[in-house]
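Obj.: predict assembly geometry.
Materials: sequence records (below).
Method: joint structure prediction, all chains together.
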Amino acid sequence: MENISKEEYQKIVKKHTPHEDRLKNGIIVFIAGGIMGVLAQILMQVYINFFNLASSDASVLVIITFIVLACILTGFGVFDKLVRIFKAALLIPITGFAHAMMSSAMEYRKEGFVTGIGSNIFKLTGTVILYGVVSAYFFGMIRYFIMGA
Amino acid sequence: MIYVNAFLFCGIVCLIAQIILDNTTLTPGHITSLFVIIGVILDVFNIYDKILLWAGAGAILPITSFGHLLIHGSMDFASDYGFIGLATGMFNLTAAGISIAIVASFFLTLIFKPKD
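Observations (raw structure tokens):
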């Protein structure tokens, strides 16, 4: 075993890590993410026009539709393949939240209902809820005392 | 026109996330947490409401809207019930999304078996 310095080691690591085409990634993600936004807008118009819903109710239904779709696709194992192609375009919309929850529930399914699903369902989404609630409470309090509600 | 705005906003948010993913060692978990906090901060200054009017559902879909809904429900209740409203109204608007995500993933987990 020959001795190599830290810099040489870093060089070797850099050479062997798979190099991704960032420009191509960016273009794919921008277009796919945009299409997700347009789909959501079309769905919202459908809910407003055909089911006569108020726009606030329609927006909740749009979110629910995307969550259920993402859960079903994760169940079939399709979502992971799509994420490999479209990357952040599927992880940043609410579909990523549903996918994280569904996949951690499925992964720990065999460990039982309480110690498996119960204690691990929030394993990946817990961070989003935690920092969302903490920052909303913190900034909400600042705004409440400085600017009033 | 709102379709173009929805395309642009949702696309740009995803693009920023992908640029961070490609150029740093942060995981998607870090980025979604960061974007939720950005959504909260944008709502503090009432910017997110303007984005919602401009981009429609394109601004509802990204995870930033989760943060926006958290603080928005909180502030709505705070104006009605005072300081305690900050806590009681926290999940007022996001409850539907979180509940459906939990219920759907629980029952679908019982149906589907993991592939590998």
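Conclusions so far: Chain B touches chain A through 67 residues (CB under 8 Å).
To do: check interface contacts against the pulldown list.
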